[in-house]
Inverse folding.
């Protein structure tokens, strides 16, 4: 007979308007689980408690997260640090909590900048500099994710903010090149 072992996994949906969470728990044959619920702390909005479907892939959007009403168009779900707590009755005895950072909006902006890189009419030094800058931004994003996965929330927020600032600066310059990073790291 299997033991109750609650666990969840955040699955990329590749959509800024959805959050996907899979239930990867093991459940005993009896008694059946009761009142499966997930509490999601949305950065800047607070905690929302939502019914959760066991043994399934659950997808949430701005309406189900109570960020918009049912009649509004779906909006992008904010980036930032999320705390997810999945529980079954009795709630205080059987739960699992995960902390993640959502970077979907920043990643979408990064992807757009990356796709423009090959299409830009720049000389080779500028292209190399742009690749170095995008790699730096990518590592900052990955660092934010790693920090959040290890509950280093302040570090995650700082790395996210730095990646966002650098990406905004990169996009504003379009194909501009300071060569400082390239000269420092590759010559």
């Amino acid at each position: 007979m299997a033991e109750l072992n609650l666990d969840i996994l955040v699955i990329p949906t590749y959509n800024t308007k959805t959050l996907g969470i899979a239930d990867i728990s093991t459940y005993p044959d009896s008694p059946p689980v009761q009142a499966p619920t997930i509490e999601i702390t949305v950065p800047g909005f607070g905690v929302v408690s939502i019914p959760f479907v066991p043994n399934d892939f659950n997808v949430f959007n701005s309406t189900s997260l109570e960020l918009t009403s049912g009649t509004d168009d779906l909006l992008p779900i904010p980036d930032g640090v999320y705390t997810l707590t999945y529980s079954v009755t009795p709630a205080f005895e059987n739960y699992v909590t995960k902390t993640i950072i959502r970077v979907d909006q920043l990643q979408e902006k990064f992807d757009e900048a990356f796709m423009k890189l090959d299409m830009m009419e720049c000389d080779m030094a500028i292209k190399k500099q742009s690749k170095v800058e995008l790699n730096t931004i990518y590592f900052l994003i990955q660092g934010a994710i790693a920090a959040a996965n290890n509950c280093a929330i302040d570090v995650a927020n700082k790395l996210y903010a730095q990646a966002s600032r650098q990406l905004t600066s990169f996009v504003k310059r379009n194909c501009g090149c300071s060569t400082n990073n390239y000269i420092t790291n590759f010559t």
Summary: The chain has two domains: 8-102, 104-186. The mean pLDDT is 86. The first strand starts at residue 8 and ends at 11.
